[in-house]
């Protein structure tokens, strides 16, 4: 059991002063406000909840920055994929674990305490399944165990190379499963995370271009009530191809053909009509936004203002992991809206309200829903995921409450995080994860070999 005391803490009901939080077996068992610290308390200035990166492709952390030289007259998401395929085809299981371990360490150092791993690098380099079909999932679970991050594993079902059941691209051979294989992969993945505290499992049909309608119908029951994540409407070409195939745009097709509800998370959903935006918000599903990656890949900008005004739920993910940080994703989300509308504080919840607080609350709640977490924030019964901020940072000094969130999100980066508890374990102190150096050494060895 551990007892922590914070001069100020952001609780579900709002900011509170002199807050004592008691942790037992990784869970918050007591939250008391307005109480002085005791000699048994570990004392800190300010606490906020850790939030989830609801969408990650861990292996892509190893190729961050490698796709910034164009070999094409017009460089797009579709040409970027060729670099990604080449990198993915070279990775061994131990490389995946090394890259994922450093990524999860970095996530924790930067305020994320849970990851939704949209995991599609399944098979050996020639495309044949490993003896343990979930070998790569075992490696992801190992990285989560070493780092301490909460894991929602989302094995991806990927069967085709395009709409209408097109044959897969050779570069996709490590991703490909049929429905029966995917069922076996899912069962083995459940076993892979079985001993990992706080973990859970969902499914991730990759996209409508990668999964045929009958296959999607067959795969959905395999979720067994867990979360369902799917890429949708990330690119204009994807929307155009979906229209040519079905006469419907991707989001509309999903809403028309399936009972999309709070279990679902539509990743990106960038290119929607006004009717789609309103309908997705009404469904209760989460829009999984990845603003840094969406900017990096030139995807476009999500209609966040209209969606939030329609009471839609959002969370944020790090996707390609080209840059990792809670503040980076939330800042980019707002800045994209500012550039689009040529206004400031576009996503604030109302007059005189903090934009940082609005974004943080939305990402906290939406991320918890998307990853099937029954509680969000610092409350009894919740996983003890706690982040403290360094109030000596020049952009935080002298600030309190929502002004701290605004300073962190809009004027700092990872260096403003001081300590992090994940599942009750203190894994970051003074901004440094306890396994940072070992994780960096492992990552560096793997990437040097891959790039050689």
Radius of gyration: 21 Å
The helix content, as a percent range, equals: 25-40%
The general outline is globular
The name CATH uses for the topology of the largest domain is TIM Barrel
EC number: 3.5.3.13
Domain Formimidoylglutamate deiminase N-terminal: 4-44
GO molecular function, one term: formimidoylglutamate deiminase activity
Enzyme class: hydrolase
Can you describe this structure?
The longest helix is centred in the first third of the chain and has 17 residues, at 93-109. This protein folds into two domains: 2-48 and 379-438, Urease, subunit C, domain 1 (Roll); 50-370, Alpha-Beta Barrel (TIM Barrel), CATH 3.20.20.140. β7, α4 and β8 form a beta-alpha-beta unit. The chain is α/β, with parallel strands linked by helices and 452 residues long. The chain has an eight-stranded mixed sheet with strand order 3-2-1-4-14-15-16-17, covered by helices on one side. It has helices at 77-89, 93-109, 135-147, 179-192, 213-219, 236-246, 250-257, 274-283, 291-296, 304-309, 326-341, 355-370, 402-411, 436-451; strands spanning 2-11, 14-24, 27-33, 42-49, 51-56, 112-119, 150-157, 200-201, 204-205, 228-232, 264-268, 286-289, 313-316, 386-389, 417-422, 425-429, 432-433. Helices cover 36% and strands 21% of the residues. α2 (93-109) packs parallel to α3 and α12 (355-370) packs across α13 (402-411). It has 14 helices and 17 strands. 52% of the residues are buried.
